[in-house]
Amino acid sequence: MPLFRTSAATSVGDLYALIRDKRELTRAEIGKLTGLSRTAVTARVRELTSRALVIEHERAPSTGGRPATLLRFNADAGVVLSAAVGGSRTRLGVCNLAGELLASADIDQGPGLGPADLMPEVVTRLDLLRAEAGYRGARVFGVGLSLPGTVDQARGSSVDTPVLSGWDGAPLIPYFRELADAPVVLGNDANVIALAEWRIGAGRGFDDLLVIKASTGLGAGIIAGGALQRGAIRAAGEFGHNKTAAADARPCRCGNIGCLETIAGGWALVRELREEGRPVHNLRDVVELAHAGDALARRVIRESGRHVGEVLAAAVNLLNPAALVVAGDVAGAYDIFVAGLRETLYGNATALATRGLEVVPAHLGERGGVVGSALMVLDHVLGAQAIDALVTPS
Protein backbone atom coordinates (compact mmCIF):
# COMPACT_ATOMS: atom_id res chain seq x y z
CA MET A 1 0.00 0.00 0.00
CA PRO A 2 1.34 3.50 -0.79
CA LEU A 3 2.56 5.48 2.21
CA PHE A 4 1.69 8.73 0.49
CA ARG A 5 -1.34 10.47 -0.98
CA THR A 6 -0.62 13.22 -3.50
CA SER A 7 -3.33 15.59 -2.27
CA ALA A 8 -1.55 16.04 1.07
CA ALA A 9 2.01 16.51 -0.20
CA THR A 10 2.89 19.93 1.18
CA SER A 11 5.33 19.42 4.06
CA VAL A 12 8.82 17.96 4.30
CA GLY A 13 7.31 14.86 5.87
CA ASP A 14 4.80 14.48 3.04
CA LEU A 15 7.56 14.76 0.46
CA TYR A 16 9.66 12.20 2.32
CA ALA A 17 6.68 9.83 2.40
CA LEU A 18 6.43 10.18 -1.37
CA ILE A 19 10.10 9.38 -1.93
CA ARG A 20 9.94 6.53 0.58
CA ASP A 21 6.98 5.06 -1.27
CA LYS A 22 8.38 5.47 -4.81
CA ARG A 23 12.00 4.76 -3.72
CA GLU A 24 13.43 7.31 -6.19
CA LEU A 25 12.19 10.36 -8.10
CA THR A 26 13.52 13.42 -9.87
CA ARG A 27 12.69 16.91 -8.64
CA ALA A 28 10.57 17.43 -11.75
CA GLU A 29 8.56 14.29 -11.00
CA ILE A 30 8.02 15.45 -7.43
CA GLY A 31 6.77 18.81 -8.70
CA LYS A 32 4.28 17.15 -11.02
CA LEU A 33 2.99 14.81 -8.32
CA THR A 34 2.71 17.43 -5.59
CA GLY A 35 2.08 20.71 -7.37
CA LEU A 36 4.93 22.30 -5.39
CA SER A 37 7.13 24.90 -7.04
CA ARG A 38 10.73 24.08 -7.91
CA THR A 39 11.92 26.34 -5.10
CA ALA A 40 9.65 24.63 -2.57
CA VAL A 41 10.78 21.18 -3.67
CA THR A 42 14.45 22.18 -3.38
CA ALA A 43 13.97 23.57 0.12
CA ARG A 44 12.23 20.44 1.35
CA VAL A 45 14.74 18.12 -0.28
CA ARG A 46 17.58 20.02 1.38
CA GLU A 47 16.10 19.22 4.81
CA LEU A 48 16.07 15.52 3.94
CA THR A 49 19.48 15.26 2.29
CA SER A 50 21.14 17.13 5.17
CA ARG A 51 19.94 14.34 7.48
CA ALA A 52 20.93 11.58 5.01
CA LEU A 53 17.32 10.41 4.82
CA VAL A 54 17.44 11.00 1.08
CA ILE A 55 20.51 10.77 -1.16
CA GLU A 56 21.13 12.22 -4.61
CA HIS A 57 22.71 10.58 -7.62
CA GLU A 58 22.74 11.18 -11.35
CA ARG A 59 20.83 9.06 -13.80
CA ALA A 60 22.45 8.53 -17.20
CA PRO A 61 20.56 10.42 -19.92
CA SER A 62 18.83 8.31 -22.55
CA THR A 63 19.22 10.77 -25.46
CA GLY A 64 22.21 12.86 -24.50
CA GLY A 65 22.25 16.10 -22.58
CA ARG A 66 22.56 16.70 -18.87
CA PRO A 67 21.49 13.71 -16.76
CA ALA A 68 18.64 14.16 -14.31
CA THR A 69 19.40 13.99 -10.59
CA LEU A 70 17.50 11.27 -8.79
CA LEU A 71 16.44 11.58 -5.18
CA ARG A 72 16.59 8.15 -3.59
CA PHE A 73 15.17 6.94 -0.28
CA ASN A 74 18.17 6.06 1.86
CA ALA A 75 17.30 2.71 3.41
CA ASP A 76 20.79 2.54 4.91
CA ALA A 77 20.52 5.74 6.96
CA GLY A 78 20.05 3.61 10.08
CA VAL A 79 18.40 0.49 11.45
CA VAL A 80 15.45 -0.61 13.52
CA LEU A 81 15.56 -3.47 16.01
CA SER A 82 12.67 -5.85 16.48
CA ALA A 83 11.59 -8.67 18.76
CA ALA A 84 8.60 -10.95 18.20
CA VAL A 85 7.80 -12.64 21.50
CA GLY A 86 5.85 -15.90 21.30
CA GLY A 87 4.74 -18.63 23.62
CA SER A 88 7.69 -20.93 22.91
CA ARG A 89 10.14 -18.78 20.94
CA THR A 90 11.21 -15.18 20.53
CA ARG A 91 12.57 -14.03 17.18
CA LEU A 92 14.95 -11.09 16.97
CA GLY A 93 15.84 -8.95 13.98
CA VAL A 94 17.88 -6.02 12.71
CA CYS A 95 16.26 -4.30 9.72
CA ASN A 96 17.12 -1.35 7.50
CA LEU A 97 14.75 1.58 6.96
CA ALA A 98 12.97 -0.29 4.17
CA GLY A 99 12.10 -3.07 6.61
CA GLU A 100 14.51 -5.51 4.97
CA LEU A 101 15.88 -8.08 7.41
CA LEU A 102 19.65 -7.69 7.77
CA ALA A 103 20.22 -10.19 10.60
CA SER A 104 18.09 -12.45 12.78
CA ALA A 105 18.33 -14.83 15.75
CA ASP A 106 16.05 -16.92 17.94
CA ILE A 107 15.58 -17.42 21.65
CA ASP A 108 13.94 -20.73 22.47
CA GLN A 109 12.17 -20.37 25.77
CA GLY A 110 10.45 -22.67 28.20
CA PRO A 111 6.88 -22.11 29.40
CA GLY A 112 6.08 -19.67 32.18
CA LEU A 113 8.89 -17.17 31.65
CA GLY A 114 7.93 -13.72 32.92
CA PRO A 115 9.20 -10.42 31.51
CA ALA A 116 11.87 -10.17 34.22
CA ASP A 117 13.26 -13.51 33.00
CA LEU A 118 13.01 -13.02 29.24
CA MET A 119 13.32 -9.30 28.51
CA PRO A 120 16.92 -8.82 29.74
CA GLU A 121 17.99 -11.66 27.44
CA VAL A 122 16.04 -10.11 24.55
CA VAL A 123 17.87 -6.81 25.02
CA THR A 124 21.29 -8.44 25.42
CA ARG A 125 20.82 -10.64 22.35
CA LEU A 126 19.56 -7.71 20.24
CA ASP A 127 22.68 -5.74 21.15
CA LEU A 128 24.91 -8.71 20.26
CA LEU A 129 23.02 -9.30 17.02
CA ARG A 130 23.49 -5.68 15.99
CA ALA A 131 27.22 -5.89 16.72
CA GLU A 132 27.71 -9.25 15.00
CA ALA A 133 25.94 -7.97 11.89
CA GLY A 134 28.23 -4.93 11.75
CA TYR A 135 25.69 -2.28 12.76
CA ARG A 136 26.98 -1.32 16.20
CA GLY A 137 27.62 2.26 15.08
CA ALA A 138 24.45 2.63 13.02
CA ARG A 139 21.75 4.98 14.22
CA VAL A 140 18.84 3.09 15.79
CA PHE A 141 15.61 4.75 14.70
CA GLY A 142 13.33 2.61 16.84
CA VAL A 143 12.58 -0.72 18.48
CA GLY A 144 9.53 -2.86 17.69
CA LEU A 145 8.14 -5.41 20.14
CA SER A 146 5.23 -7.69 19.27
CA LEU A 147 3.34 -9.82 21.78
CA PRO A 148 0.63 -12.49 21.47
CA GLY A 149 -2.29 -10.52 22.84
CA THR A 150 -3.66 -7.04 23.36
CA VAL A 151 -1.13 -4.30 24.10
CA ASP A 152 -1.37 -0.81 25.56
CA GLN A 153 1.17 1.47 23.83
CA ALA A 154 0.56 4.33 26.28
CA ARG A 155 1.42 2.13 29.27
CA GLY A 156 4.05 0.17 27.38
CA SER A 157 2.68 -3.18 28.45
CA SER A 158 0.47 -6.08 27.47
CA VAL A 159 -3.15 -5.94 28.62
CA ASP A 160 -4.49 -9.41 27.97
CA THR A 161 -1.94 -12.03 26.96
CA PRO A 162 -3.07 -15.51 28.07
CA VAL A 163 -0.19 -17.12 26.14
CA LEU A 164 2.33 -15.30 28.39
CA SER A 165 1.51 -15.71 32.06
CA GLY A 166 2.51 -12.83 34.31
CA TRP A 167 3.12 -10.26 31.58
CA ASP A 168 -0.05 -8.18 31.77
CA GLY A 169 0.59 -4.70 33.12
CA ALA A 170 4.36 -5.16 33.40
CA PRO A 171 6.22 -2.14 31.93
CA LEU A 172 8.35 -3.32 29.01
CA ILE A 173 9.73 -0.14 27.47
CA PRO A 174 12.24 0.55 30.30
CA TYR A 175 14.15 -2.63 29.40
CA PHE A 176 15.28 -0.98 26.15
CA ARG A 177 16.54 2.31 27.61
CA GLU A 178 20.18 1.24 27.71
CA LEU A 179 19.98 -0.39 24.28
CA ALA A 180 18.93 2.67 22.29
CA ASP A 181 17.70 6.20 22.78
CA ALA A 182 14.82 5.62 20.38
CA PRO A 183 11.06 5.08 20.44
CA VAL A 184 9.81 1.62 21.45
CA VAL A 185 6.57 0.60 19.75
CA LEU A 186 4.44 -2.32 20.93
CA GLY A 187 2.07 -4.31 18.75
CA ASN A 188 -0.01 -7.46 18.60
CA ASP A 189 1.74 -10.41 16.94
CA ALA A 190 -0.99 -11.16 14.39
CA ASN A 191 -1.27 -7.47 13.49
CA VAL A 192 2.42 -7.07 12.71
CA ILE A 193 2.42 -10.24 10.60
CA ALA A 194 -0.61 -8.90 8.74
CA LEU A 195 1.22 -5.61 8.15
CA ALA A 196 4.22 -7.45 6.71
CA GLU A 197 2.22 -9.82 4.52
CA TRP A 198 0.09 -6.93 3.24
CA ARG A 199 3.01 -4.67 2.41
CA ILE A 200 5.54 -7.13 0.99
CA GLY A 201 4.13 -10.65 1.27
CA ALA A 202 1.22 -12.83 0.21
CA GLY A 203 -1.33 -10.06 0.71
CA ARG A 204 0.39 -7.44 -1.42
CA GLY A 205 -2.10 -5.80 -3.76
CA PHE A 206 -5.15 -6.53 -1.60
CA ASP A 207 -7.00 -3.80 0.29
CA ASP A 208 -9.15 -6.31 2.20
CA LEU A 209 -7.25 -9.12 3.81
CA LEU A 210 -7.53 -11.52 6.75
CA VAL A 211 -4.25 -12.90 8.09
CA ILE A 212 -4.43 -15.63 10.72
CA LYS A 213 -1.57 -16.62 12.97
CA ALA A 214 -1.94 -20.18 14.21
CA SER A 215 0.86 -21.00 16.63
CA THR A 216 0.74 -21.55 20.39
CA GLY A 217 -2.36 -19.34 20.32
CA LEU A 218 -4.72 -18.14 17.61
CA GLY A 219 -5.14 -14.58 16.37
CA ALA A 220 -5.91 -12.59 13.26
CA GLY A 221 -4.79 -9.36 11.66
CA ILE A 222 -7.45 -7.50 9.68
CA ILE A 223 -6.78 -5.25 6.72
CA ALA A 224 -10.00 -3.55 5.65
CA GLY A 225 -10.30 -0.74 3.15
CA GLY A 226 -6.52 -0.50 2.86
CA ALA A 227 -5.87 0.00 6.59
CA LEU A 228 -4.89 -2.20 9.51
CA GLN A 229 -7.85 -2.45 11.89
CA ARG A 230 -6.86 -2.66 15.56
CA GLY A 231 -10.24 -2.01 17.18
CA ALA A 232 -11.36 0.40 19.88
CA ILE A 233 -9.01 -0.99 22.55
CA ARG A 234 -6.61 -2.74 20.14
CA ALA A 235 -8.30 -6.08 20.76
CA ALA A 236 -9.51 -6.82 17.23
CA GLY A 237 -8.74 -10.26 15.82
CA GLU A 238 -8.71 -12.35 19.01
CA PHE A 239 -10.82 -15.09 17.42
CA GLY A 240 -9.02 -17.81 19.39
CA HIS A 241 -11.25 -16.97 22.33
CA ASN A 242 -14.51 -17.19 20.44
CA LYS A 243 -16.77 -19.73 22.07
CA THR A 244 -17.50 -22.84 20.05
CA ALA A 245 -19.77 -25.77 20.78
CA ALA A 246 -17.02 -28.19 19.82
CA ALA A 247 -14.92 -27.03 22.79
CA ASP A 248 -17.53 -28.52 25.15
CA ALA A 249 -16.87 -26.18 28.10
CA ARG A 250 -13.14 -26.97 28.20
CA PRO A 251 -11.14 -24.59 30.43
CA CYS A 252 -9.00 -22.08 28.55
CA ARG A 253 -5.84 -20.39 29.72
CA CYS A 254 -7.65 -17.05 29.46
CA GLY A 255 -9.86 -18.06 32.40
CA ASN A 256 -12.99 -18.71 30.36
CA ILE A 257 -14.37 -22.01 29.13
CA GLY A 258 -15.29 -23.27 25.67
CA CYS A 259 -12.78 -21.16 23.70
CA LEU A 260 -11.66 -22.22 20.23
CA GLU A 261 -8.05 -22.36 21.42
CA THR A 262 -8.83 -25.26 23.76
CA ILE A 263 -9.30 -27.53 20.73
CA ALA A 264 -7.42 -25.74 17.93
CA GLY A 265 -4.57 -23.75 19.47
CA GLY A 266 -1.04 -25.07 19.34
CA TRP A 267 -0.90 -25.55 23.09
CA ALA A 268 -4.01 -27.76 22.95
CA LEU A 269 -2.55 -29.88 20.14
CA VAL A 270 0.67 -30.33 22.10
CA ARG A 271 -1.30 -31.39 25.17
CA GLU A 272 -3.29 -33.94 23.19
CA LEU A 273 -0.20 -35.53 21.64
CA ARG A 274 1.66 -35.62 24.94
CA GLU A 275 -1.28 -37.42 26.53
CA GLU A 276 -0.79 -40.04 23.81
CA GLY A 277 2.89 -40.40 24.62
CA ARG A 278 4.40 -38.22 21.88
CA PRO A 279 7.52 -36.29 23.00
CA VAL A 280 6.41 -32.86 21.77
CA HIS A 281 7.06 -29.49 23.38
CA ASN A 282 5.53 -27.02 20.92
CA LEU A 283 3.55 -26.83 17.69
CA ARG A 284 6.72 -27.03 15.62
CA ASP A 285 7.32 -30.49 17.07
CA VAL A 286 3.77 -31.48 16.12
CA VAL A 287 4.33 -30.28 12.56
CA GLU A 288 7.58 -32.24 12.37
CA LEU A 289 5.79 -35.41 13.49
CA ALA A 290 3.08 -34.84 10.89
CA HIS A 291 5.69 -34.60 8.13
CA ALA A 292 7.26 -37.80 9.44
CA GLY A 293 3.95 -39.55 8.84
CA ASP A 294 2.53 -39.68 12.37
CA ALA A 295 -1.20 -40.27 11.85
CA LEU A 296 -2.27 -38.64 15.13
CA ALA A 297 -0.24 -35.48 14.46
CA ARG A 298 -1.73 -35.20 10.99
CA ARG A 299 -5.23 -35.73 12.34
CA VAL A 300 -5.03 -33.08 15.09
CA ILE A 301 -3.62 -30.50 12.65
CA ARG A 302 -6.42 -31.16 10.16
CA GLU A 303 -9.02 -31.05 12.94
CA SER A 304 -7.53 -27.75 14.12
CA GLY A 305 -8.06 -26.40 10.60
CA ARG A 306 -11.66 -27.60 10.62
CA HIS A 307 -12.41 -25.87 13.93
CA VAL A 308 -10.67 -22.66 12.82
CA GLY A 309 -12.53 -22.64 9.50
CA GLU A 310 -15.86 -23.03 11.23
CA VAL A 311 -15.26 -19.99 13.43
CA LEU A 312 -13.68 -17.90 10.66
CA ALA A 313 -16.68 -18.40 8.38
CA ALA A 314 -18.53 -15.69 10.29
CA ALA A 315 -15.56 -13.32 9.92
CA VAL A 316 -15.45 -13.97 6.17
CA ASN A 317 -19.15 -13.20 5.90
CA LEU A 318 -18.75 -10.04 7.98
CA LEU A 319 -15.55 -8.64 6.42
CA ASN A 320 -15.61 -10.13 2.90
CA PRO A 321 -11.81 -10.29 2.52
CA ALA A 322 -10.26 -10.87 -0.88
CA ALA A 323 -7.69 -13.24 0.62
CA LEU A 324 -7.07 -15.24 3.75
CA VAL A 325 -3.38 -15.72 4.58
CA VAL A 326 -2.30 -18.57 6.86
CA ALA A 327 0.74 -17.73 9.01
CA GLY A 328 2.31 -18.98 12.21
CA ASP A 329 3.92 -22.31 13.05
CA VAL A 330 1.01 -24.29 11.62
CA ALA A 331 1.94 -22.97 8.18
CA GLY A 332 4.70 -25.57 8.28
CA ALA A 333 1.90 -28.10 7.72
CA TYR A 334 -0.11 -25.77 5.48
CA ASP A 335 -1.65 -28.42 3.21
CA ILE A 336 -2.88 -30.54 6.12
CA PHE A 337 -4.26 -27.58 8.08
CA VAL A 338 -5.91 -25.90 5.09
CA ALA A 339 -7.57 -29.14 3.97
CA GLY A 340 -9.56 -29.01 7.18
CA LEU A 341 -10.04 -25.24 7.11
CA ARG A 342 -11.46 -25.20 3.59
CA GLU A 343 -13.94 -27.92 4.46
CA THR A 344 -15.73 -25.90 7.15
CA LEU A 345 -14.98 -22.39 5.91
CA TYR A 346 -16.59 -22.94 2.53
CA GLY A 347 -19.32 -25.05 4.11
CA ASN A 348 -20.37 -22.35 6.58
CA ALA A 349 -19.62 -19.02 4.89
CA THR A 350 -21.89 -17.69 2.18
CA ALA A 351 -21.23 -18.60 -1.43
CA LEU A 352 -21.04 -14.89 -2.28
CA ALA A 353 -18.37 -14.10 0.36
CA THR A 354 -16.20 -17.05 -0.69
CA ARG A 355 -16.73 -16.79 -4.45
CA GLY A 356 -13.44 -15.01 -5.10
CA LEU A 357 -11.73 -15.69 -1.78
CA GLU A 358 -8.10 -16.80 -2.05
CA VAL A 359 -6.63 -18.95 0.73
CA VAL A 360 -2.83 -18.74 0.58
CA PRO A 361 0.23 -19.45 2.76
CA ALA A 362 2.22 -16.58 4.24
CA HIS A 363 5.20 -15.67 2.07
CA LEU A 364 7.43 -14.39 4.84
CA GLY A 365 7.27 -17.51 6.99
CA GLU A 366 9.23 -17.21 10.22
CA ARG A 367 10.38 -13.71 9.26
CA GLY A 368 6.87 -12.26 9.41
CA GLY A 369 6.90 -11.23 13.07
CA VAL A 370 10.25 -9.43 13.10
CA VAL A 371 9.74 -7.80 9.69
CA GLY A 372 6.23 -6.71 10.67
CA SER A 373 7.48 -5.31 13.98
CA ALA A 374 10.10 -3.33 12.05
CA LEU A 375 7.51 -1.97 9.61
CA MET A 376 5.32 -0.96 12.56
CA VAL A 377 8.20 1.05 14.03
CA LEU A 378 9.09 2.59 10.66
CA ASP A 379 5.54 3.83 10.18
CA HIS A 380 5.87 5.52 13.56
CA VAL A 381 9.34 7.07 13.25
CA LEU A 382 9.38 7.82 9.51
CA GLY A 383 5.78 8.92 9.10
CA ALA A 384 5.08 12.40 7.76
CA GLN A 385 4.33 13.86 11.20
CA ALA A 386 7.47 12.38 12.73
CA ILE A 387 9.66 13.77 9.95
CA ASP A 388 8.01 17.18 10.21
CA ALA A 389 8.71 17.17 13.98
CA LEU A 390 12.34 16.23 13.26
CA VAL A 391 12.96 19.13 10.89
CA THR A 392 10.96 21.75 12.81
CA PRO A 393 13.02 23.64 15.44
CA SER A 394 11.59 23.30 18.94
Automatic annotation (TrEMBL):
Top-rank taxon: Bacteria
Gene3D superfamilies, A to Z: 3.30.420.40, Winged helix-like DNA-binding domain superfamily/Winged helix DNA-binding domain
InterPro entries documented for this protein: ATPase_NBD, ROK, WH-like_DNA-bd_sf, WH_DNA-bd_sf
Similarity comment text for this entry: Belongs to the ROK (NagC/XylR) family.
Protein name: ROK family protein
Species this chain originates from: Mycolicibacterium aurum (Mycobacterium aurum)
Organism lineage string: Bacteria, Bacillati, Actinomycetota, Actinomycetes, Mycobacteriales
